[in-house]
Amino acid sequence: MEKYFTEKWGIFEITLQGPADGNPFVDVRLQAIFKHNHREIIVDGFYDGEGIYKIRFMPDSEGRWEYITLSNRPELDNKRGEFECVKPSTGNHGPVRIKNNYHFCYEDGTPYHPFGTTCYAWIHQPEHLQEKTLETLKKSPFNKIRMCVFPKHYSFNSNEPLYYPFEGSVEKGWDFSRFNPQFFRHLEKRVKDLMELGIEADIILFHPYDRWGFANMGRENDERYLRYIVARLSAFRNVWWSLANEYDAVESKNITDWDRYFKVVQESDPYQHLRSIHNMHNFYDHSKPWVTHLSVQIQTPYLGDIGKWREQYKKPVLIDECGYEGNIEYGWGNLTAEELVRRFWEGVVRGGYVTHGETYLHPEDILWWAKGGELRGESPERIKFLKKIVEEAPVDEINPTSLTSWDVICGGKEGEYYLMYFGNARPAERTIRLPQGKKFKIDIIDTWEMTITPLDGLFEGNIKIKLPGKPYIAIRMIKVE
Amino acid sequence: MEKYFTEKWGIFEITLQGPADGNPFVDVRLQAIFKHNHREIIVDGFYDGEGIYKIRFMPDSEGRWEYITLSNRPELDNKRGEFECVKPSTGNHGPVRIKNNYHFCYEDGTPYHPFGTTCYAWIHQPEHLQEKTLETLKKSPFNKIRMCVFPKHYSFNSNEPLYYPFEGSVEKGWDFSRFNPQFFRHLEKRVKDLMELGIEADIILFHPYDRWGFANMGRENDERYLRYIVARLSAFRNVWWSLANEYDAVESKNITDWDRYFKVVQESDPYQHLRSIHNMHNFYDHSKPWVTHLSVQIQTPYLGDIGKWREQYKKPVLIDECGYEGNIEYGWGNLTAEELVRRFWEGVVRGGYVTHGETYLHPEDILWWAKGGELRGESPERIKFLKKIVEEAPVDEINPTSLTSWDVICGGKEGEYYLMYFGNARPAERTIRLPQGKKFKIDIIDTWEMTITPLDGLFEGNIKIKLPGKPYIAIRMIKVE
Questions:
Q1: How far apart are CA A427 and CA A468, in angstroms?
Q2: Which of A336, A351, B224, B255 has a CA that sits 20 to 30 A from residue B338's CA?
Q3: Do A358 and A466 share a domain, yes or no?
Q4: Helices (H), ranges, B274-393
Q5: Is there a single domain that holds both residue A318 and residue A433?
Q6: B256 — contact with chain A (CB < 8 Å)?
Q7: What Rg do the C-alpha atoms of chain B give, in angstroms?
Q8: Mean pLDDT of A438-465
Q9: For position B300, what pLDDT does the model report?
Q10: B170 and B270 co-located in one domain
Q11: Does residue A91 belong to any structural domain of this protein?
Q12: Please, which pLDDT band fits residue A2 given cuts at 50, 70 and 90?
C-alpha cells in the first residue's frame, strides 16, 4: 500500500470516480469518516463534474489518520485509506481561532492580528488582473481579504465574471441545482493562492449586488449552495465565513433565513472556521452563539463604540468597513489616506481591528475595493507600520487601559504596555499618569511620517512630556523595570 | 431748558447726586420711567460710588422721550427730563434679536450671522494687553465675543485681575453687598469698545473657575449682583446675557437657582437682550421660555445634532464651544486650524453657528481664549472667508436642504441657494440633483485655500460635476433663472 503524507492543517484530498448521470449534485451523497486515535470526523465530499468526486480533509493532529467513505452509490461507498499527518511547514500555523474573547491566534498559538483589505470581486476579473492583485497583496501588509463568492454588480463593477457558479447562461437562465465546477475550482485556486501568501480569505457567501439572480435563489438552493461550498472549501485553513455583505440589503432573506444559514454552515464545517455577517445599517444579533466575531460596517468616522460592543458581545470587534481611501463621490469611498490610517490606529488602540479598502477613480474602473489590481494609496504603507508595531509589542493583545481619557485613547496592557493615540488632535505636550514603582521607556511615534523617536531615560509616575504638536501622534510606553 | 439728543439704540444717561452714607447699593432704590407716545419703560438706576447715581436708557424709537425718577430718597426722587431720540448713526443697527426661530437679525432688520470668538478673561489682563486684544478684534472677522464678568482662575490663567468686583481684598475677603464701581466702569468701557467695533458682548455672568468666592456668594448676593449688572449694562445694545459658562460645573448652584437667575435677568432687563447658558456636560433645558437660543458645548467633533436641536427647541443653535485651534495638551484645545474651520463650515451649513477660540502654548501663558492679545492661528482668515460667503448669499438664512444626504451636508434655501460641504471627504466628482426647471450657477469653493472657482455655464436637474478630490471643498449653487 502506498503511503501518503499530509502536513498538519494541510489538505488531504480523495478523488473518486462515480456516476455522471442524473444530477450528481443532488442525487449523490458522499461523506468520509476520518479517524485519528479516539476521534472521528465526518467530512462531506462533493461532485466536481465529469464523474469525479472529491473529499477534502484538513487534519489537525500529527500521526496516522484512517478514513472510510459513505455514499448512497456503491461505487463511492466504503472506500478506505489512510495517511500520515506530519508537522506543518514553515508559515503554516493552522486556522485562525478566537483568543481571550476579543482577539485571535492561529491554532498553533501564534498571535494573529487581522489587518484586512477588501477586493470584493477580484476573482471575477480577467486572469492577468487577478495575478496583479496577488502580486500586490504579496507586497502589502494585509493578512485578510474580504471577497465575494458570487460576481458583483455595482458602481464601477458591471462586467460579467470569468465563470458562473451554476450551469446555464445569462441568456437562458441558471439551473441552481447544478454547480459549475470550473467556477469553484477557480475560487479554490484563489483561496489557495491567498493561503500561500498567509492571507485569510474572508469569504462572503451572499451579497445584494446582483443582476443574475444569485441573491434570490430560494432557501433550498441557498442551502445546497452553502453545503457545497463548505464541502469544497472548508479544508482550506485560511477560510473565514462571512454569511453576507450588507445582509440587511438582501431583500429576499430575513433574519430567520440568516439564522438557518449560519447553522447550515456551522453544522457542515468540520473545522469550525470563523463565522460572521456584515451589516449595512442594522446589526445582526452578534450575541447568537454561531457568530464568532463582529464584522461591522459603520458610517461614522469615529470608532468609539468598539468598547461598548466588546463589553456587550464579548467577542472580537472587526470594523470591516469604515470607509475607503479614495476619491469617488460616495462618502464611503473618499477618505484621505490620513483619515483611513487614523481609523486603523483608533480601532487597534481601542482593542478592535480595522479593514482597509481603496476606491480611487480609474479610467477603466479598476478600483481595488471591487476588482483588485494595484494599490495607489498612501495608507497601506502606514498600515504596515502599525502592523509592525502591534507585532513587535511585548503583549499579544491590545485592550483598553486606564490611561484612556475623554480626549485620548490608550490601549495595551495595564502596567506593562501602553499605546496612546491622539488622532487628529495635536498637543504639544501631555501629562501622563504612569503606574508608580515601574519604569517605562517611551517612544514618540509619528504614525503618518512613520518615525519612532525614543525619549532619553526612563519614566515613572506622573510625567509631562513634549510632543510634536501635530496630528497623528502616538506614544508608546513599555515597562522595562 | 437745554435739549438733549440721543441716537436710537444709543445710551441716554442720567447722573444724579445722592446719599453716600450707609450702603447705597442696598439702601437706595432708584428707577426712572421713560415715556414715549403710548409707552412707558421702567429702568433701574445704580449707585456708581462717591454719591453718584446713574440711570441708563437705550431708546428704541425716534422722537421725544420724557422721564421721571422714582426713589426712596427724596434727593433722587421725582427728577424729570426729556430728550430727543434721533436716527441711529452708521453701523448702529440696534440689539440682536431672534429671527425665524433659528436665526438672528439686528433690531433694524439687518441680518446678523454670529461668528464669535472666546476671550474669557481679557478684561482682567494688563491694559496694554486689552488694547492689543481690541486691535486684534478690529482686524478679525469676529462679531461676537464670549467674556466673563468675574476674573478667572484656570490653567494658563492664574494672575490676579486688574480690578475686583466687590469692596475688599484677597487678604481680607469681600463685602459682596458693596460693588466696586471702578470694576464695573472698566467692564462697561470694554463693552463699549466692543460696541464700537460692531462686536456683540456675550457676557458670562457666572463661571466655576474661581478662587475668590465669586462663584459661591449665596443667592441674595447673586441676585443683587445680577440686578446691578443689568442696571449698568443693559442699555448697551451689544449685550447678550450668558447666565454661566459650564453652569453644570458651578457646584454651589442648582437648576432652581439658574431658573431663578434667568428670571431675575429677564425681569430686570428692559430691552430683553438675548439670554442663554452654556453647559459643560449636561444641557440646561433650552425649552424654558426665558432661553432665547442654545449656547452649546460639545465634546464630539461632528455637529450632526444641530438639526435635532433646531427641531427640538425651535431656537437658534450656537455651538459656542466645540474645541479651539491650538496645541495645548487638553483635547478641547488642540484642534488644527483645518479642523476648527471644518467645524465652522459644518455648523453653518447645518443651519447653526459656531464660535472660535485659540489655545496655543505661549511662553507667558497668553492664550487668546483666556487672555486675548494676538491671534496666531490660521482659522480666523478662513472664518472671515466663510463669513463673507454667508453675508453675500442671496438669502439671509441658511437652513438644511433636501440636497443633504448621509455623506454630504447642504444648507441654503430650497430651490434658491445651496451651499454643499464635504468636510474632510474628498470626492473627485459628485452627482447632484438640482431642481428641474430652474437654472443655477455653480462655484467650487476651496474653503481652506479660500478660492472660488466658477463653473462654465448654467446647470439644471441631475448633473455630475468634477471636484478637486481634496478635503474641505464646498459647492455653491445659486439660482439665476
A1: 7
A2: A351
A3: no
A4: 306-313, 337-349, 368-371, 379-392
A5: no
A6: no
A7: 24
A8: 98
A9: 87
A10: yes
A11: no
A12: confident
Read off the pLDDT of residues A258-306 as tens digits, 9 standing for 90 and up: 999 999 999 999 999 999 999 999 999 999 999 999 999 998 889 999 9
Identify whether A345 is part of a domain: yes
B305 in contact with chain A, both atoms CB, cutoff 8 A: no
Number of structural domains in chain B: 3
Question: Closest approach of chain B CAs to the CA of A334, in angstroms?
Answer: 5
Distance CA A455, CA B464 (A): 51
Residues β-bridged to residue B64: B84
Instruction: Categorize the per-residue pLDDT at A413 as very low, low, confident or very high, splitting at 50, 70 and 90.
Output: very high
* B274 within some domain: yes
Q: Is-contact A7 A89, C-beta < 8 A?
A: yes
Same-domain pairing of B189 and B271? yes
Residue B323 and residue B409 in one domain: no
Each residue of A115-141: pLDDT tens digit? 999 999 999 999 999 999 999 999 999
Q: How far apart are the first and last CA of chain A?
A: 60
Q: Which of A327, A407, A471 sits opposite B428 (nearest CB)?
A: A327
Host domain of residue B67: 5-86
What mean pLDDT comes out for the span A339-364? 98
pLDDT of residue B1: 62
- Assign residue B24 the CATH number of its domain: 2.60.40.10
Same domain, B438 and B387: no
- Supply A351's cell numbers: 482593542
Q: Is B265 on the interface with A (CB under 8 A)?
A: no
CA distance A445 to chain B (A): 16
Residues A318 and A405 in one domain: no
Pairing of strands B275-276, B239-244: parallel
Q: B427 CB near a chain A CB, below 8 Å?
A: yes
Long-range contacts at B85-91 (CB < 8 A, ≥ 24 apart)? B85/B5, B85/B6, B85/B7, B85/B8, B85/B12, B85/B36, B85/B59, B85/B61, B86/B5, B86/B6, B86/B7, B86/B8, B86/B62, B87/B7, B87/B8, B87/B62, B88/B7, B88/B8, B88/B9, B88/B10, B89/B7, B89/B10, B91/B198
**Do B127 and B177 sit in the same domain of this protein?**
yes
Testing the interface with A: which of B329, B338, B365 to mutate, by most A Cβ within 10 A?
B329
- With CA atoms as reference, report the closest residue to B187 among B242, B143, B233: B233
Q: In the structure, what pLDDT confidence band is assigned to residue A481 with cuts at 50, 70 and 90?
A: confident
Enumerate the β-bridge partners of residue A144.
A116, A200
Instruction: Mark yes or no for CB contact A428/B471 under 8 Å.
Output: no
Whether chain B has a CB inside 8 Å of the CB on A426: the answer is: yes
CATH number of the CATH domain containing A428: 2.60.40.3950
**Would you state the pLDDT for residue A1?**
62
Q: What is the chain B residue with the closest CA to A467?
A: B329
Low-confidence ranges of chain B (pLDDT < 70): 1
- The domain that contains B289 carries what CATH number? 3.20.20.80
Q: Is B56 left (phi over 0), alpha (psi -120 to 50) or beta?
A: beta
- Taking the C-alpha atoms of residue B75 and residue B354, their distance in angstroms, rounded to an integer, is 49
Count A/B contacts: CB-CB distance under 8 Å: 78
A430 touches chain B (CB under 8 A): yes
Q: Are A25 and A68 in contact (CB under 8 A)?
A: no
| B301 contacts chain A (CB < 8 A) | yes
Domain boundary pick from A363, A392, A421? A392
Taking every pair of Cα atoms in chain B, the longest distance, rounded to a whole number of angstroms, is: 78
ipTM of the complex: 0.92
Residues of B in contact with A335 (CB under 8 A): 424-426
Q: Which of A136, A126, A98 is nearest to A114 (CA)?
A: A98
A301/B329 Cβ within 8 A: no
| Residue A127 is assigned to a structural domain of this protein | yes
The 10s digit of each residue's pLDDT in A255-269 is 999 999 999 999 999
Give the rounded distance of the alpha carbon of B397 from its chain centre.
Answer: 18
Q: What residues in B contact A330, CB-CB < 8 Å?
A: 407, 427
Nearest C-alpha neighbor of A295 from the set A286, A303, A307, A304: A286
